[in-house]
Amino acid sequence: MPKGSVSPAEGAAYRDPKTGVLIRQVTEAPCINHHPFFYIPAYDDAMTRLFFVSHRTGRPEIFAEILETARTVQLTERDEIAEWSVHPSHDGRYVYFIAGAGAWRACVETFKEEKLADFGDAEMREKGMIGAAMGTTTLSSDDRWWAVPVKEGGVHRFHLIDTSSGKSKVILERDTIGHPQFHPNDPGLLRYAGPYYDRIWVINRDGTGNRLLYRRNVAKKQWIVHETWLPGTREVVTADWPRGMIGINVDTGAVRPVTNFPAWHAVSDRSGCVIVCDTTFPDTGIHLFNASDGDGRPRLLCLSESSNVGQHWNIDHCPYDDGPVKVVSPQHTHPHPSFSPDGRRIVFTTDKTGHPQVCEVAIPPELLNTIIG
């Protein structure tokens, strides 16, 4: 299929067997389909398009559902797209991605693909399926800055690309850099993941202020993972697997409980009021809870019915403290729920049909009211 190809609406709607909410299956191609990583927006801010990756052409390409018509359009036609690097621009004009050793963006109207940076013969990512091996990138909320971690030999370099001028610079070099995210309200501040034993780091956009935010409890083999910013605050919220979640203030270092519910991949809506999460071991479904009431009581939205591959999650402490772990954890088997910009819908991926498919569910207003109070 060439880029620019438009397909009729796909998928179908079904009722969740547990809660009865209506779930819309967005994709139906018998292959891998998934939305961007859980803290990366799947929609542009105006919610004109829902972006996803599909292997329907035989390789990962970027597609978008035009929400007004439910038609699907292919946005790219390029080899070696790093499928978890995809990041739509907030203004809806472009989608940014890594392909091979190049940093690219595609115009959603003209489908023109433009290379913003070339990293030469860099390896780009670690080997594997998780963490820095996924190759996630981050775009600032004003769409001006694109931060891209690049593995080059024995070092990781944090490249900052000015999307206006095309100029780039390295703001950090260190042993590993994974899962970066700009602060949603401050394009001058980022967080990223270091090694598992010193996980959460923050850094200013100019490369100053690089520091470890939270020192885990080594004696308890505490597993800090899946951290994200809490919008409207100066906090990073993170899973303390499987004990629940904590919030950490980047200015004071103060730590507070968010929930004692075993949230797996968890992210807030843009108001910073409500968090959505998936679950595993056991998978009890996709839940919503209050982000700041100190209780974080979960409310079930729907089941994921996904396979959630990754046996290393079936543990009560950090498995890497026990020695080398062979991780088999294909990310397209994980739901990775994420909010729409207006906070009224959740997008997630499920392989309940035998192939990962992108789904969208509207949050019942009464459920939101219960959570927000």
How is this structure best described in words?
By secondary structure, this protein is mainly beta. It has a single domain, classed as Methylamine Dehydrogenase, Chain H (7 Propeller). It is built from one helix and 30 strands. It has a five-stranded antiparallel beta sheet, with no helix packed on it. Strand 18 and strand 19 form a beta hairpin. The mean pLDDT is 97.
Quickly describe the structure.
This protein has 373 residues and is mostly beta strands. It has one helix at 365-372; strands at residues 6-7, 13-15, 22-25, 33-34, 49-54, 61-66, 71-74, 87-88, 94-99, 102-107, 113-118, 138-139, 145-152, 155-162, 168-174, 178-183, 186-193, 200-204, 211-212, 223-230, 235-241, 244-249, 255-259, 266-268, 274-277, 286-290, 299-302, 338-339, 345-350, 357-362.
